[in-house]
Design a protein that fits this description.
This protein is an alpha/beta fold. It has a single domain, classed as 3-Layer(aba) Sandwich (Rossmann fold). It has six helices and twelve strands. Bound molecules: glutamine (GLN).
Length: 199
């Protein structure tokens, strides 16, 4: 199984490292041919507007949309979560997503860069101890369609908001497991969605 990490912008190197720590050989992908040849994809954290614009500029958007709709296992963290959402609140003017996940996400939901925070989260399907979740100008999930499973939520100003979701071949987190050194979310993706057994 060839896993690619979209390398247009953002923290793709951290995802490559997390995958290699799981024993999965992955490569940075940024061309039409490279993306055509992978079996699974990670959309990194970064800036969703920039990644979407670069994908459009390089003629990759339709291919990525098609591959995701065709069932390719795909995981998005933070900006990657936004890129997997069918709908965005507080989007930049004309902002596109690849979509696939029947949900609405709110960009920059927890506030500005200075409001970034960390929290210990239990994620359904991942055995305790909780995951140290790092939120950096993160989105939250505002609403989900019937096929979307909420794997984790956080409380913010007295309200609960989903921050990890799965729908079939698609996984998304508002937070960045790739920068914690804890690779259990990547392992979950590889084992449960890509169906590859790792040691
Ligand atoms: N706020 C960014 C966006 O809208 C996401 C931030 C992140 O990936 N850490 O794309």
């Amino acid at each position: 199984m060839k896993v690619g990490v979209l390398a247009l912008q953002g923290d793709f190197r951290e995802h490559l490292y997390a995958l290699s720590e799981c024993g999965v050989e992955a490569s940075a992908v940024k061309t039409f041919d490279e993306i055509s040849q992978i079996d699974a994809l990670i959309l990194p954290g970064g800036e969703s507007t920039t990644i979407a614009k670069l994908a459009r500029t390089f003629g990759l958007t339709d291919l990525i949309v098609e591959r995701i709709r065709g069932g390719m296992p795909t995981y998005g963290s933070c900006a990657g979560m936004i890129l997997l959402a069918d709908r965005i609140e507080d989007a930049a003017a004309g902002q596109e997503t690849f979509g696939g996940l029947d949900m609405t996400v709110r960009r920059n939901a927890f506030g500005r860069q200075v409001d970034s925070f960390e929290s210990d989260l239990l994620v359904a399907g991942i055995t305790a101890p909780p995951i140290r979740a790092i939120f950096i100008r993160a989105p939250w999930v505002e609403s989900v369609g019937p096929g979307v499973e909420v794997l984790a939520s956080v409380e913010f100003n007295g309200e609960c908001h989903p921050v990890a979701v799965r729908q079939g071949n698609l996984l998304a987190t508002s937070f960045h497991p790739e920068i914690t050194g804890d690779n259990r979310v990547h392992r979950f993706f590889v084992e449960n969605i890509c169906k590859v057994h790792v040691a």
